[in-house]
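[Meeting: bench + compute handoff]

Bench side (C.D.) handed over the final construct sequence. Compute side (W.E.) agreed to return the predicted structure before the next meeting so the bench team could plan truncations. Sequence as handed over:
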Amino acid sequence: WAEGKKTRGTISMSNSDQRIIRIFYKWAKRYVPETRLTIRLQAPRDGNISECRKHWEDLFPDVRISTIYIGKNTKVKYGVCNLEILGIRGARTFIHQLMDRFSERMDNIAS
């Protein structure tokens, strides 16, 4: 599905599939609108960095691209987008509560 992480005040998700990043983006806008979003891009080694940057900027014009670096093994045309939600108080607790709610919903669907 996707890679992600949670650290002090930050939750992020990485993927090359814009549909997955779009879901995370919409979720962030809906559930944690008071936070700030930023993008870190892992560009393909043999790709066009400007084209990669433009692709993600066009998809998320209100999100600042903070970092672009060249990936050793990145082979997808537009690289890997890491969308970060910054400024979440109690990020770990927040994610655990979210996962609990998600698990409950999945249990209800399965039964």
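W.E. noted at the follow-up: The longest strand covers residues 36-44. C.D. will use this when planning the next construct.
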